[in-house]
Amino acid sequence: MIVDLLKREEGKTLEFKQDLSSPRNLLKTLVAFANTAGGRLLIGIADDRSVVGVENPLDEEERLANLIADGIAPRLVPNIEMLTVEGKTLLVAEVFLSSTRPHHLRAEGAENGVYVRLGSTNRQADRELIAELRRTVEGISFDEMPMPECTIDDLDLDAARRAFAGVRELHEQNLRTLKILVQDQGRTVPSRGGMLLFGRNRTFHFPDCWVQCGRFIGTDKAKIFDHIEIEEPLPQTVDSIMLFLKKHAMRGADFSDTRRRDIWSIPLEALREAVINALVHADWSQRGTPVRVAFFDDRIEIENPGILPPGITIEDMLQGVSKIRNPVIARVFRELNLIEQWGSGVPRIYSQIAAQGFPVPVIRELGLRVRFVFPLAEAIPVQESSQAASQPGAPSRLESRLESRLESRLAAKIVLLLEKGPAGKAELARKLGHKTVSGELHKQIKRLLNLGVIAMTIPEKPNSRLQKYRLTDGERKQLAQQGEE
């Protein structure tokens, strides 16, 4: 077994270390393993993958155990064993997915010392991800939690009934069965999943419950050709995304059978499965990260916020193993026949791709997102004569470019408002149609300040009630250049 491990690359469940000379990095890896999907740490392996072994293995085993006991909380007890390879002794620390997660480094504290494993790297968890780790241990899903500030009137029941037409009647008991409505302190209120699915004002409660679709010129995001924002009820979103993809694909015809058969340049069935997978498995508790669909000349990327659920690896996904992050959303999608069978989506994507002869897609964990990449069999250059970019209601080309650069729709809107003149937070909130100055607005203003995009009008008194914000000279020049392109 150990010989097989040495042939593998470092990844989500495997890491090599030469010795114990960097205890903090070693402890970060063990914490990340325990919080994510388990893993093995092999000590005594050089960077070039040669076996160098561990000197004084008994002493080093004791030192490792003490480092773990003193440096990690809650208590973590990995299996530590000594194995001999090529006449040299290795230490192998095996960690399983922990039932007492999230673990953290004692020296960094419970708020700053939590790490998760993303590919072959360890990433510090933010507040939302720490909360997600706690929920998974407690058996609580984000979308099943009640929203006591809302009532049944905050649900668009007409949209829900249209979605369920011909499937089932939606009286209050059925809404309870589907957990669109839940009990909270003796009151019946919408669940978070219910609001995500059919809320009248979803983006007020969940600013990133929307889908960003873009068609880019070439193979990077330097130039955007077409862009839409989809803010419909989640079940309707699937068809809207597919319409956008079809609009930019090429369609041919096959007359070899008795009837005409459309031949598309993109794998529509597999893409639809990936879109559904992204909506159902997105971590909607994250801020600043909507679901994104990007169409390039040579590939299509579909990505959703959220790391893979604890205990799940990409290899597990390919085998059909899955954990449902959003059971309310998944149950509704199943009722609407958008999901055929639990855990079958990813294997079906690959079987459809193989049957149609398209290149094999790739799944990647990038930051706190999961991305499905579909390479295209042949490049599809943008048809400049297309009318797609002039679609009614679409954002301006400048706004689309700005949003692509800043990676935030709200940030783009703030910049465009400040282009007209300085404004305070309350004024910006009002112009954006927000009832109050939201936490996300605070966050984006702080981010734009750090990026040097905007500046304070009273920098010597940052907390002044008269404080306003303006565009920096550099940002005004960049906006002018983008507007001329």
From TrEMBL:
Residues 414-472 form the Filamentation induced by cAMP protein Fic-like C-terminal domain. Residues 10-125 form the Schlafen AlbA-2 domain. Keywords: ATP-binding, Helicase, Hydrolase, Nucleotide-binding. The keyword Nucleotide-binding applies. Pfam families: Fic-like_C (PF21247), HATPase_c_4 (PF13749), SLFN_AlbA_2 (PF04326). GO terms for molecular function: helicase activity. It comes from the Bacteria. The keyword NAD does not apply. This is ATP-dependent DNA helicase RecG. The lineage of its organism: Bacteria, Pseudomonadati, Thermodesulfobacteriota, Desulfuromonadia, Desulfuromonadales.
